Amino acid sequence: MKTIITFGTFDLFHEGHLRILERAREMGDRLVVGVSSDAFNYSKKQRYPIIPEESRMNIVRALKCVDEVFPEKSMELKQFYCDKYDADVLVMGDDWSGSFTLQGCEDIYLPRTECVSTTEIIEKIRS
Ligand code: C2G
Q1: How far is the CA of 92 from the centre of ligand 1 (A)?
Q2: How far apart are CA 125 and CA 120, in angstroms?
Q3: Whose CA is nearest to atom 7 of ligand 1?
Q4: Which of 26, 67, 99, 127 is the most buried (most CB within 10 A)?
Q5: CB-based burial, 57-77: b 16+ in 10 Å, e otherwise
Q6: Whose CA is nearest to atom 24 of ligand 1?
Q7: pTM metric for this prediction
Q8: How far is the CA of 28 from the centre of ligand 1 (A)?
Q9: Domain encompassing residue 118
Q10: Mutational pocket test of ligand 1: of 17, 38, 92, the residue with most ligand atoms within 8 Å of the beta carbon
Q11: Nearest ligand 1 atom to alpha carbon 19
């Protein structure tokens, strides 16, 4: 059983989010997703996501390609979560290229989906 783990905020869920989760799942037998908590986002960006963490987790959990979801509480806990969920591979978009070095878990960065982002959606609604 090959376990893949990935992390993200998944605010205003869009196709870029869907594509990374689908590609991550295709790389193994089980996909576990850490959804960043509201408090973690606030500490990182001084703003809360638009969609609250419970809803973001419910949306991600409902996807066919996702097997398990948990709240990601800190950037520094990657090794802890990889060990806890017995992950073989950490998959992230290539905006995170080379950011994570883990023991007992390979890190792979996939190309981001172009022309879609939460920031752009927020800007479009604003203008
Ligand atoms: N992503 C993508 N294509 C996009 C937008 C996002 O492939 N157009 C990917 C990102 O590279 C990331 C995942 O979707 O792997 C989630 O992106 P975000 O919701 O922006 O989450 P992020 O702030 O990158 O994660 O520990 C990391 C944190 O949880 C933060």
Answers
A1: 7
A2: 9
A3: 112
A4: 67
A5: bebbeebebbbebbebeeeee
A6: 8
A7: 0.97
A8: 19
A9: 3-126
A10: 17
A11: 7
Q: For 77-109, write each residue's pLDDT tens digit.
A: 999 999 999 999 999 999 999 999 999 999 999
12-53 pLDDT, tens digit per residue, is 999 999 999 999 999 999 999 999 999 999 999 999 999 999
Ligand 1 cavity residues, CB under 6 Å: 7-10, 16-17, 20, 36, 72, 75, 92-93, 95, 112-113, 116-117
Instruction: Please tell me the total count of domains within the chain.
Output: 1
Handedness of CA 78, 71, 7, 95 (dihedral sign): negative
| Amino acid (one-letter) located at 14 | H
Q: What is the CATH number of the domain that holds 77?
A: 3.40.50.620
